[in-house]
Structure formats: C-alpha cells, structure tokens
C-alpha cells in the first residue's frame, strides 16, 4: 500500500487539500493518506518533511500566495525549502501554488486552484505508483496546470 502526504494551509482561500485528497483516493485505491494543515506557505517544508519521516512515498503541498511583494518573497523561500526537502529525502514533493494575482475574479482563482490541485494530485500518484517512466508519454506536450495546455510546438 502506498502512502501519500497532503499538506495545506489555513491561509489559502480555496480548500485545495480536500481536492487533492479526493483525487488521490480516486486515482489510487490502495493507498493511505495523511493530511497536515499548517498556517501558511513557509510552514509547508517542515510539514512535508515530517510526513516523509512518517513514511510517505510522496507529498503534495498546496499553497496560496498573496498579492504583495512580501508574499512573493515568502513563496521564493518556501520553494527553496520544498526543493531542499526533496533533495534531502529523494522523495517527490509536488508543489501546488496559486498566486492570488494570477486572476482578478474570485471565480477564476477557484477554477485555477481546482484544476491545478487536481492535475498535480494525478501527477503525484503517477510518479509515486508508476515511477520514472510514468510521464514519459507526455514529454514535450506543453501540459499546464491551472490553465488549458499550451501544447507542443513541433
Ligand atoms: O510561520 C508563520 C508564518 O510566518 C507563515 O505561516 C507564513 O507563511 C505566513 N505568510 C506570510 O508571512 C506572508 O507574508 C504567508 C504569505 N505571506 C502568503 O502569501 N501565503 C501564505 N502564508 O500561505
Ligand atoms: O511540483 C509541481 C510544480 O510546482 C512544478 O512542476 C513546477 O516546476 C511547475 N512550474 C511552475 O510552477 C511555474 O510557475 C513550471 C514553470 N513555472 C515553468 O516556467 N516551467 C516549468 N514548470 O517547467
Ligand atoms: O502560461 C501560463 C502559466 O502556466 C504560467 O503563468 C505559470 O507560471 C503559472 N503557474 C504558476 O504560477 C504556479 O505557481 C503554473 C504552476 N504553478 C503550475 O504548477 N503549472 C502551471 N502553471 O502550468
């Protein structure tokens, strides 16, 4: 049985943790999921690390970045932290981030969050369950999360 970690925040304005949990359960019926909710994005790296220490084969984090320059700096440090966790543990930590300035209208932000969380949860299951070659068939296809696919150029 595979173990997945789901880390989300109370800062987020969409419950992306629920979306990720639902999607993982649907995609992989032989799995256990541990959920960890933290206040904000800078708390994600240690929570991801703790879920890996607990035995997660892979983790998905779901963060929401505010509109200010300060928020963007917070995300940069978060991203470096999440990459460090991956390098230190040799486990995937799939980083779902919605930047509040990606859209003006709340409905569009919800749509981006739902699409990105769902598609990346599927990516996590594929990487964890099916390994290095799981995305090989999609290489160079211009896939996007949160938007329609950009598509391949050649
Ligand atoms: O450890 C407590 C907080 O420092 C931590 O939760 C931060 O991630 C909170 N936070 C900021 O301090 C900030 O300036 C967040 C953001 N911006 C942000 O854009 N998104 C967050 N948290 O989830
Ligand atoms: O862990 C899942 C994603 O966070 C990760 O695959 C990112 O590299 C995806 N990504 C972005 O989030 C982004 O803002 C990418 C780009 N920009 C980019 O320009 N090129 C990418 N990925 O390959
Ligand atoms: O081409 C439009 C978008 O793909 C581009 O603006 C990306 O940078 C948007 N984006 C993020 O900002 C992000 O934090 C993406 C991701 N994460 C992601 O995981 N996958 C994306 N875009 O396709």
Automatic annotation (TrEMBL):
Belongs to the DMRL synthase family. Pfam families: DMRL_synthase. Gene3D superfamilies: Lumazine/riboflavin synthase (3.40.50.960). InterPro entries: LS/RS, LS/RS_sf, Ribfl_synth_arc. GO terms for biological process: riboflavin biosynthetic process. Its EC number is 2.5.1.9. This is Riboflavin synthase. GO terms for cellular component: riboflavin synthase complex. It catalyses: 2 6,7-dimethyl-8-(1-D-ribityl)lumazine + H(+) = 5-amino-6-(D-ribitylamino)uracil + riboflavin. Pathway: Cofactor biosynthesis; riboflavin biosynthesis; riboflavin from 2-hydroxy-3-oxobutyl phosphate and 5-amino-6-(D-ribitylamino)uracil: step 2/2. GO terms for molecular function: riboflavin synthase activity. NCBIfam families: ribC_arch. Keywords: Riboflavin biosynthesis, Transferase.
């Amino acid at each position: 049985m595979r173990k997945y970690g789901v880390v989300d925040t109370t800062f987020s304005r969409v419950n992306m943790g629920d979306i990720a949990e639902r999607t993982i359960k649907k995609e992989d019926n032989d799995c256990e999921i541990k959920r960890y909710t933290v206040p904000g994005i800078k708390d994600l790296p240690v929570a991801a690390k703790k879920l890996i220490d607990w035995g997660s084969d892979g983790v998905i984090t779901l963060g929401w970045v505010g509109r200010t320059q300060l928020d963007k700096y917070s995300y940069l440090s978060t991203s470096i932290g999440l990459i460090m966790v991956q390098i230190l543990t040799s486990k995937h930590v799939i980083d779902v981030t919605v930047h509040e300035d990606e859209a003006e209208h709340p409905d569009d932000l919800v749509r981006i969050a739902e699409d990105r969380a769902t598609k990346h949860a599927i990516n996590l299951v594929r990487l964890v369950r099916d390994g290095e070659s799981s995305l090989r068939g999609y290489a160079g296809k211009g896939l996007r999360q949160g938007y329609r696919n950009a598509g391949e150029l050649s």
